[in-house]
């Protein structure tokens, strides 16, 4: 048993000190800090402090003031300035950088407002949409005035219809709870996806690297291949927990300090203030089970290749399984109660992501989640037993890899020992 712990600790420390691990960790921390400070970063590079200036040429002499009032209601950061010069001078001012755009207001044949917007680039659709919405409001007011509608009548006409949702299922989540669950599930699905992809690949590469350097021949003379496999899986598992802990701590601290600036957009819509403890527990359980499932698969696939160059080809089917599970889960965020999602949540290679999606989004019976966990655990045990036998023979195989035909050879070598 001492040899098992020696390999586990060696695998953990060796990867922890590697340049690739350090660089990956630093880059990911930078990305996390960037995402949680995105508004502050945008303000640094925005010379106008987030505001946009637009020159207005009002050919009617009547539209500028109501148009300015409506745009201010839609977006207070848009500054409209009535330009006193001609069209050519206004265009030159935009080219010189004095304005972000130019809008020309006029009446059409029906005496309704129309506009022509000019800018150095029309790629900024948000500014154009806000200006268009403002002019649409002006047109609505003018049309209402022609029909002799009062302001109160117009307000009633555009007042949103009352439309509420109520779930008849017992203990069903409210809309607010669903939004919070959707945001949490969305984030944790990415954590599960990237953890499985990155760390399972790391195991396969570790085994292939040792085989290519002939270190494996020395190891198997003192430690059984089965102990080696599980020591590497647990060693890299500890490594992944260490790295994830760094990401979560940095992300939590940065997010807490920028809570006010992140109140809008994704973080504001999907509040994370009241996350159920049960959901967090399920996330940890399915993350760990998903890791061990794919890590075991990656370990024995990595033992079948003798060259590092062949690793990606060998583990491609495993990677496609993870990608398929992730894509199904993304679809399930909009329809978590679809029969397709329910069925695929019991397929072992999809269960870590899709069953967790259902647990987070729906109020499913406890036995369904427990069944998913049992299926995962049983699959891991079966895969571990089979994988250990393949690994035991695979580490003795050298030469060109012939894909999955080598599994049969590995099993035959195991029997002959």
Please tell me the overall pLDDT: 77
Q: For the CA atoms, what is the radius of gyration? A: 30 Å
What's the overall geometry? elongated
User: Helix proportion of residues, in percent?
Assistant: 55-70%
The total beta strand count reads 4
Tell me the fraction of residues in β-strands, as a range.
Answer: 5-15%
Global structural class: mainly alpha
The largest sheet is: 4 strands, mixed
| N- and C-termini, Cα separation | 21 Å
In terms of per-residue confidence, which ranges show pLDDT below 50 for 5 or more consecutive residues?
265-271
Q: Helix count, per DSSP?
A: 17
Strand order of the largest sheet: 2-1-3-4
- The tally of domains stands at 2
Specify the oligomeric state.
single chain
Order of helices and strands: HHHEHEHEEHHHHHHHHHHHH
Describe this entry's structure for a reader:
- The protein is mainly α.
- The protein folds into 2 domains: 107 residues, Periplasmic binding protein-like II (D-Maltodextrin-Binding Protein, domain 2, 3-Layer(aba) Sandwich); 243 residues, no CATH class.
- Strands 2-1-3-4 form a 4-stranded mixed beta sheet, with helices on both faces.
- The relative contact order is 0.10.
- It is built from 17 helices and 4 strands.
- A hairpin with a 5-residue loop joins strand 3 and strand 4.
- The protein starts with a helix and ends with a helix.
